[in-house]
Amino acid sequence: MSTNNADRTCTPSPATFGVPWPEFNDGLTYRDLLRSPDSGLTLIDFYSLRHHSSAPLLGWLQRIENGQITVDGTIVTDPKTVLRIGTELVYHRLPWKEPYAPHLLEVLFEDDHLIALNKPSGLQVLPGGLFQQRTVLTQLQWRIKNQGPALTDRELCPVPVHRLGRGTSGILLCAKTKLAKTRLAALFADKTAAVASNRKINMEVNHGKMSKIYMALACGIINEDEVVIEQPIGTLKYPGVAKGLYVASSSGKPALSKVRVLKRDVQNNRTVVQVEIQSGRPHQIRIHLSFIGHPLIGDPLYIIGGKPKCTAPETIDETFAEDGGYHRPANPVPGDCGYHLHAHQLIFRHPITDEVCLQIRVDCFVIFP
Question: Residue limits of the Pseudouridine synthase RsuA/RluA-like domain (predicted)?
């Protein structure tokens, strides 16, 4: 892995940070306030109806009997306890061993308001699913906390302002202050809004307030030197993904990707491409390249057409994992790694100083020879 910089305003900081993950995380606490439609339900009915996506019925019975749920501050182990409006329910999820994830992050650029990181493949950005502690957000918060009181707690807001898939490596821009978070989020949102409203977008890399450029390794040989993909992206129901899986869909939201061929490897039937995304739909590059018939090499989920490999529902598994939760889905899910996608270059205006054309770049010659 090597880094280089093309602009005066962003000199990379060759430093890494990261604390090894503890064996167990801290567990989680979920709170619910019972509202009118649920008044009169029993404890087990409430959880099996309102939170069925996180555990089967037998799993919720186990959690109740283990004393993991309190009702108005009191542990209740009778699943037939009747609930009333205004009741506060608290479910305490026990600490668990999260799957392996790298913990070291490289600092590419940092000032008082921003920090740009080189995220390794295999590290999730924000908490979700099995990964609640082993995330970029956790390491960033630990680092800012240990740096000392340079800023007040009211000013601090260490948080990534966009996402990269768990299997995607490369540049991740994070805010350190609340003001930077607000303004950076607006920059990212403006690009997506421009696509949605069909506003004319300058496709030149060095123009505009925000430009995200990726490198990807695609299956097959792409004959055109440049391809613009405007396939909308929507969702469909999918096992193991509570809010639905993002896929190519004519009824979805507008999305725009510009693909440029960098290298055609005829012998191995693959193409190295550069992709600039003008919108920020989840899994956009994976979906768009698979939609045109060139899914990413090693992608365990998306196939030609921008659809998932598995569309049939899984066989219902009546057993459940530790702490009553569902076992990991047998079908591939979006967080699975194996594909080759790297956030290669980021060009943007500084949200505080308004300096034009800050450029951060990190190459990856191991993945893309």
Answer: 113-290
Rounded Cα distance between 336 and 197, Å, is: 32
Question: Rounded to two decimals, what is the model's pTM?
Answer: 0.87
Examine the pLDDT at 202 and tell me if it is beyond 60.
Answer: no
Token pair recorded at residue 82: 């009747």
Name the one residue in this structure whose structure tokens are 């010659």. 365
Q: How far is CA 206 from CA 7, 203, 342, 360, in A?
A: 11, 9, 19, 12
How far apart are the C-alpha atoms of 86 and 222, rounded to whole Å?
59
Three-class SS state of 275:
strand
Rg of the chain, C-alpha, whole Å: 23
Q: What is the mean pLDDT of residues 66-92?
A: 97
Question: By the 8 A CB rule, do 341 and 249 touch?
Answer: no
Q: What is the largest CA-CA distance in the chain?
A: 68
Other CB atoms closer than 10 Å to residue 59's CB: what's the count? 21
pLDDT at position 287, please?
Answer: 98
Contact 256, 278 (CB under 8 A): yes
In tens, the pLDDT along 344-365 reads 999 988 888 877 657 888 877 5
Q: At what angle do helices 57-65 and 43-50 cross, to 10 degrees?
A: 140
Q: Which of 200, 206, 229, 233 is nearest to 216 (CA)?
A: 229
